[in-house]
Fold each of these.
Amino acid sequence: MSIYLDNSATSPVDDRVFEVMLPYLKEKYANPSSIHNDGRQIRDELEKARGTVASLLGADTSEIIFTGSGSESDNMAIKGLAYGMKNKGRHLITSNIEHKAVLETFKYLEKEGFDVTYLKVNNDGIVDIEDFKKSIREDTILVSIMLANNEIGTIQPVEEMAEICRDNDVYMHTDAVQALGKMPVDVTDLGVHMLTFSGHKIYAPKGIGVLYVDESLKDFIVPLVHGGHHEYGLRAGTENVPYIIGIAKACEIIKDQLQEDSKKIGYLRDLFEKRVLEEIPDTYVNGARDKRICSISNITFKYIEGEALMVYASEIDCSTGSACTSDSVDASHVLYAINADPVDMHGALRFSFGRFNNEEEVNRAVDILKENVKKLRQMSPLMSNE
Ligand SMILES: Cc1ncc(COP(=O)(O)O)c(C=O)c1O
């Protein structure tokens, strides 16, 4: 049996989520836009689900837009606002450690005539507030900075940045795909205008995402998909009711057990990290260890290739760089951004822990890593050259 330590790439579906979805795949199939009784009942249930999601985020029900993924939510927020506000200004700000769903969207907008500032992070993986303040201009319309990074887990000072944005009449979006379910995420406390999250990172299925949009902003977002008046006119297409019911259940569970989950996940991650660092020589953690979500451990194993270790320790499911780019030969843009050693960065692996992991798996994973790191180092030219 493999040991699944890749929960940041995707999470298993929680049984409780699966159960509530089933009726909507079978008998509760009516279209929520239909005006017959069955349609109206589904509409009520869909809107109740919207309310559940809103309540987890501290938002109003009408501020929740269901999308098809975290990537789509990021695109809708960034392109939607950029196009909607282009007469006000054409300057946008982000960081150089964002997920590709954000970075590539900004790169696309550069081709469309927008001017983008990519803020650098320090060696801990955190954006500098003074640099951020200096980057704001008269024509800045939008800032998008992730709440927690998907490769090293570092948490950005989003609350502070959102306040600066509000003082400067600039809109702020945050990608909270990795943060939700690992730390409290409340849009009022954060002060952001838009926030993204995704179902398959919180024990709901793949293919469903959410974008929170501040009520005052909804009229200014240009939709990506035109058609019917679904999702307040921001995303045409008959709603994916079973998945919406599922993501709402996943949110309800987070509301009930965030503390319990984050305590358990943090305990397992810390146990893993402590044993690896103590028992496997020449290993270290990438990024800040204190300002991190509880679930991610990005570890460099010096003198070996991360991919080779994954092949040798094949019982462990984990990632090199970020999972979405694991078919690319380039080293991670995040490790470059934190000035990681260019040779060492090829020996970095991301382990991400979740609700369904246990202590026995963590201990077994460390034992497997210990044995295989030793084997690979015996053959490593980097090691023998030392
Ligand atoms: C920080 C972050 N943003 C966005 C995404 C994209 O989410 P989805 O896979 O739902 O498109 C991911 C997925 O890994 C992510 O980690």
Amino acid sequence: MQVTTLLSLAAVVTTAIAGVVDTHPWKAPTKNDRRGPCPMLNSLANHGFIARSGKDISIDQLVNAIEEAINISPNSTRPVVEFGATTSTTGNPNTFHLSDLNKHGVIEHDGSLSRNDLYFGDNHSFNSRIYDTVAKFFTKSTISIETAARARKARLAAAAAANPQFQYGEQEETVSLFETALYLATFGTGTQGNAPTKYVNILFREERLPYKEGYCKPTRVISNDDIVELADKVRAAA
Ligand code: HEM
């Protein structure tokens, strides 16, 4: 590729990133806004891809927002969003507040990477002490499938040792595997993993999409098969 072509490509990407930063600026939630245990959904609200209030989010709005922001296919997210909506306290089964997802035993589970277990009180706020124990595995500039699997395994072992009422069965295992697969799919390379460590840390620690650091929505749609393949690889690596 010629230098001029590369330069114009760089200009297009820079303009695209600047566009999203302008149209979806990150704003910290106010004290009346609702947030929940999912770093990605909280980030989408912080960028205004869904209501910044985190309240009365409809299933369709969320499915479309995920596609718009991070290009995960609607057919892979709709079933999860519909499952999440079973926690709804809005009075309308098609909408929910992000905080409704705090309900333990639906999607929310023990042994989270960045939240404490319900047994200790708060199962939904970011907990830097816990996330530090996970992030210490992320010693390279990108997170491989093996590293992600090791970090997850260690966190589950620590949570099981600390919580006398640790609850973890087949459903929790599946959900937890998919959460690791999702951050690798969102920021990594196809189904190879290798998510930039900086991006993953920003998602967890700041609940923001790392546009300023260079993240750009992938042009290729992330499919259900991609996520399942990554979850299988994480399971095998552990
Ligand atoms: C679309 C891309 C998504 C990504 C990249 C993503 C990412 C993640 C990650 C990495 C976690 C683990 C947090 C931790 O262990 O500390 C998580 C947790 C969670 N996510 Fe998402 N998520 C996505 C979509 C969704 C959707 C559609 C729902 C449901 C409406 C959802 C609901 C949850 C819930 C309830 C948890 C808490 C589980 C726990 O107890 O650890 N997420 N998500």
